[in-house]
């Protein structure tokens, strides 16, 4: 099994196969629009703009598990993110990242990342860095800002 075996739904409900991202460097992040870390959207978009032409993608998964900080539908969240932060990276349907309803992608990410292997997601804006071969090379906690690990992203690009 690899990360490319998973299917997810985009914010409109369309099924997306992660194999579409094969050969790209990925930053997979669970987000929320009403979180104290929401301002990271600006830095994420800046990173995306800087590296997207080199094969970099950010995959944004809104998550309402932490104090219901991602209210509304996936389409409403997407509209808010485009208006407030001008995001251009792919955004997906709301998912759970822990517990009985956690998305299988997040179980895979947690179980296959050597950094905090198997540990539950603590909060919104936990980020997983995946190399071009689909290896999960790092996990960044919510307080770690995109500018703090930009060099790491650039190294694997």
List the helices and strands and how they pair.
Blueprint: E1 7-9, E2 15-17, E3 25-31, H1 40-51, E4 56-62, H2 74-85, H3 104-112, E5 127-130, E6 136-140, H4 146-156
Parallel strand pairs: 3-4
Antiparallel strand pairs: 1-2, 3-5, 5-6
Helix pairs in contact: 1-4
Give structural notes:
The protein has 157 residues and is an alpha+beta fold. The protein contains 4 helices and 6 strands; from the N terminus they run βββαβααββα. The strands form 2 sheets. It has a 4-stranded mixed sheet with strand order 4-3-5-6, with helices on one face. It starts with 6 loop residues before the first strand and ends with a helix.
Features:
157 residues; alpha+beta; Glutaredoxin; 4-stranded mixed sheet; two-stranded antiparallel sheet
């Amino acid at each position: 099994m690899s990360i490319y075996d998973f299917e997810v739904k985009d914010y409109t409900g369309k099924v997306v196969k992660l194999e579409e991202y094969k050969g790209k460097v990925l930053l997979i992040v669970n987000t929320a629009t009403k979180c104290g870390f929401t301002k990271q959207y600006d830095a994420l978009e800046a990173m995306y703009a800087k590296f997207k032409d080199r094969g970099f993608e950010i995959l944004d998964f809104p998550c309402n598990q932490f104090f219901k900080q991602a209210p509304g539908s996936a389409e409403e969240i997407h509209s808010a993110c485009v208006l407030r932060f001008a995001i251009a990276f792919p955004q997906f349907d709301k998912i759970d990242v822990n517990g009985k309803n956690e998305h299988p992608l997040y179980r895979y990410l947690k179980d296959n990342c050597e950094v905090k292997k198997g540990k539950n997601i603590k909060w919104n804006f936990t980020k997983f860095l995946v190399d071009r071969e689909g290896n999960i090379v790092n996990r960044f906690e919510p307080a770690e800002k995109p500018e703090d690990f930009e060099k790491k992203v650039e190294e694997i690009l």
